[in-house]
Automatic annotation (TrEMBL), chain B:
Record localization: Cell inner membrane; Cell membrane
Cellular component, GO annotation: plasma membrane
Entry keyword rRNA-binding: no
ABC transmembrane type-1 domain residues: 61-248
Pfam families per UniProt: BPD_transp_1
Keyword annotations from UniProtKB, A to Z: Cell inner membrane, Cell membrane, Membrane, Transmembrane, Transmembrane helix, Transport
Transmembrane annotation, as ranges: 6-28, 65-90, 96-117, 124-144, 186-208, 228-249
Protein name in the entry: ABC transporter permease subunit
């Protein structure tokens, strides 16, 4: 039994919960509260939400964010599903090195990442010049500042994350299962179709929802590329909130609340899926 | 055999995709002139000389260091003891911490910034302090994970029991027994948190604005002015993150080796 007298518990947790309260709960409450206020922070109204749901411009922003998050997550996860499996086929030492590299590049996001792509594919980028030199018209007309350019950048920060999240999943597939399956006469293809995939599928879907949430909340890369021109949810929130002439912080709060809700749903799906796996395996 | 080649191919695609943008920036930061030719016309270190001669850059570097360091130290001093006592003495509260972590995931920088501006802008509280507070919350998931795993690895509960039987007070036992044994594990989480914060742009840009230049804000300002200087900043930033990662890997390996 533990001794009574929780002095240490109280003394150590009070400052901790105070900071969490001040810098997580308070802003959350103020944001939710602000989203129900009229312009200028007056009264109680649903106008901001009405505006978001009626204005085609904000529909577009949500549509764009969802599309770019969906496509970048799909491409990243398909690449990662194969590459991560390949990684597990190498020695422990090489696996470690690749994971360290993934970890390292996962930190390479936001402004530096956007800039690295400008160097490669911007108007006088390295590859742009190369494609022009060889006269590859279709490639040299590729525009970094377009949606497909942004997808390339999003894939970059999704890919290492996907590899790191999927790696432990493959380690859960035990060689004994494979041996047992092959003893019973299953081919490798049959093993993956009947055993491997069903086991890892919930994890892949869970990883996908994390990637999706990650992309939905991304802001800096798109902002670095073209300022406020991309019509993404996060870019709209930033523009409505920061102090330029178009600032409408109450509307920004409403959009931020809706985005937060989207992320909560994505995270709940992941939570639900990961609980599903545990039940299956135990 | 066909199979190994496929494995090389899939890994190769991913590695190439992750490597090429990095190499491009490094090369560009050493290039004299690179507008019409495929390869740079010459190599130079003058962009780095210029960068490190720019007091604006050095100041921004200092600001980034101060911001990231103070948030990391704050979490070492406040978060680690809190997580320690919750894990050991109030395990029921771990659910609460996990809910807080889910909340931080559901409120990335851009959303948190909206709330923080509404709550604190114009209230007289320094927005720089607010940003550090937000950083504290932002690194909670990494610090929690690291601290909890370290505590589990050293069997903190039996250590505490032993120390208390030998007559140490709980506080002394924590300071003299627990802290030294979890130090290396905590250090890894702290370095990870530090490197994440060092690359943070959204909160500091929205909360404090352009008047308070950190490295990321400086980089953003330089993007449209000088590509070479900007890529020198990117290269330096990446080297710093690489060094921090190397230290983390070494610390983790040492820990694994000693067990």
């Amino acid at each position: 039994m533990r001794k009574r007298g929780n002095g240490l518990l109280i003394a150590s947790t009070i400052p901790f919960f105070l900071l969490v309260f001040l810098f997580l709960i308070v802003p959350l409450v103020f944001m939710i509260f602000g989203s129900f206020q009229g312009n200028g922070g007056i009264g109680f109204t649903f106008d901001q939400y009405k505006e978001v749901f009626q204005n085609a411009y904000y529909h577009q922003a949500f549509k764009n964010s969802i599309l770019i998050s969906f496509f970048s997550s799909i491409i990243a996860i398909v690449l990662a599903v194969f590459a991560t499996y390949s990684i597990t086929q190498f020695s422990k030492k090489i696996q470690d090195r690749i994971l360290v590299f993934a970890n390292l590049t996962s930190n390479f996001a936001g402004i530096p990442l956007a800039f690295a792509f400008i160097v490669l594919l911007g108007n006088s980028g390295l590859f742009t010049l190369l494609f022009k030199h060889f006269g590859w018209e279709t490639l040299s007309s590729f525009h970094l500042y377009s949606w497909s350019g942004l997808v390339l950048i999003y894939i970059y920060f999704q890919l290492p994350l996907a590899v790191m999240l999927l790696f432990p999943v493959y380690q859960g597939i035990q060689t004994q299962w494979k041996e047992a399956a092959s003893l019973l006469g299953a081919t490798t293809f049959q093993f993956w179709l009947r055993i491997g995939l069903p086991v890892i599928m919930p994890s892949i879907a869970g990883t996908f929802s994390i990637l999706f949430a990650n992309a939905m909340g991304a802001y800096a890369s798109a902002y670095a590329l073209t300022g406020s021109t991309y019509n993404l949810v996060t870019i709209r929130i930033g523009a409505l909130t920061s102090g330029d002439i178009f600032a409408k912080p109450e509307l920004g709060s409403a959009i931020a609340c809706l985005l937060g809700l989207t992320l909560v749903v994505a995270l709940l799906i992941n939570e639900w899926l990961s609980r599903k796996i545990r039940r299956d395996l135990s | 055999m066909k199979k190994p080649f496929l494995h090389y191919l899939t890994i190769g695609i991913v590695l190439l995709y992750l490597l090429v943008p990095l190499l491009g920036s490094f090369l560009y930061s050493f290039a004299t002139n690179w507008h019409k030719t495929i390869l740079p016309e010459g190599l130079t270190i003058k962009w780095y000389m210029e960068l490190f001669g720019d007091s604006r850059f050095l100041l921004s570097l200092g600001r980034s260091l101060i911001m990231s360091l103070s948030a990391t130290l704050l979490s070492l001093v406040i978060m680690v003891p809190a997580i320690f006592s919750i894990v050991l003495y109030a395990p029921k509260w771990e659910k609460l911490i996990q809910s807080i972590i889910v909340m931080t995931y559901a409120m990335p920088g851009i959303i948190l910034a909206v709330g923080l501006i509404r709550a604190y802008a114009g209230s007289g509280v320094s927005m720089i302090l607010v940003t550090i507070g937000a950083y504290f919350v932002g690194i909670l998931p990494y610090m929690y994970q690291g601290t909890r795993n370290s505590l589990r690895n050293i069997h903190a509960d039996s250590l505490m029991e032993a120390a208390e039987i030998l007559g140490a007070s709980r506080f002394i036992a924590f300071l003299k027994v627990i802290v030294p044994s979890i130090m290396s594990g905590i250090l890894v989480s702290a370095l990870l948190s530090f490197s994440i914060l060092f690359g943070e742009f959204v909160l500091v840009n929205l909360l404090v604005g352009g008047s308070f230049e950190t490295v990321q804000v400086y980089l953003y300002q330089k993007l449209n002015q000088s590509g070479h200087i900007a890529s020198a900043v990117v290269a330096c930033y990446f080297v710093l993150v690489a060094i921090l990662t190397a230290i983390m890997v070494k610390a983790t390996r040492k820990k694994e080796g000693s067990v």
